[in-house]
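Quick one: structure tokens for this chain, please?
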Amino acid sequence: MPKKAYLAEHLSSEELKDRYRSSQDSVETRRWQLLAQISLG
């Protein structure tokens, strides 16, 4: 079973979502999206 990912609380879930939505680069968008999903549990 894979290990669960954890995030340090540098940005809130809402801030991660905002960065995901405002990103112009497709790779960067996917990375922010992944981090936002992990932050929601």
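The helical segments are 13-22, 26-40.
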